[in-house]
Amino acid sequence: MPKIKNLSNACKVSFSPDGPISEEALERVRALLDEIRPIDVGLDNEAQIARNWNNSTRQPNGRRGRNGANQFTSPIKYLHIHESESFSMGIFCMPPSSVIPLHNHPGMTVLSKLLYGTLHAESYDWIDIADPTDQIQELAVRPARLVRDREMSAPETTILYPNRGGNIHTFRAITPCALFDVLSPPYSAEKGRDCSYFRKSSVREPPGM
What we know:
Order of helices and strands: HEEHHEEEEEEEHEEEE
Mean pLDDT: 85
Structural class: alpha+beta
Helix content: 10-25%
CATH superfamily: Jelly Rolls
Strand content: 35-45%
Distance between the termini: 51 Å
Largest sheet: 5 strands, antiparallel
Number of helices: 4
Shape: globular
CATH architecture: Sandwich
CATH topology: Jelly Rolls
CATH class: Mainly Beta
Radius of gyration: 19 Å
């Protein structure tokens, strides 16, 4: 897989244990990720299924079996490609209606390339509050700003940064789809980069927010 090797080599010189060494280096990696196609990672057959997908003939919670009965949605698959102390690469293969829950990437820069299919992306950034109110402290909530709430169709590449761009996000597959992620630096609980999951809460905004 020459394109994957080229991407990996670029990541090795563009990323450090603290993340991208520069914005220019990050853009070089993004340009190579933009060139990756399903056939480059052995997913051409799955991409063809996504291109022929017809939501009108399938229920939202599954797919048609041979006898016409609905089958439960298959689980999300993760294809691990590479991991070092500076970056990791992997692909999430999502069946229709599957969801990657609302989660974060603390201290990390993430490039995501939608290889095939269509999904709905919803992402947020934290809103910093200098003097949190008692209400926020008691409810253990934190305000966040909506960054993205839309459908994405392949091919599309996005970048999120540690403090902007939608670091907290969730994905819901509309058709079969695959998401190629490059994380720098990778998750590490020992270094304070553990993944946290969230849920949205409806609370009354404190005065002045």
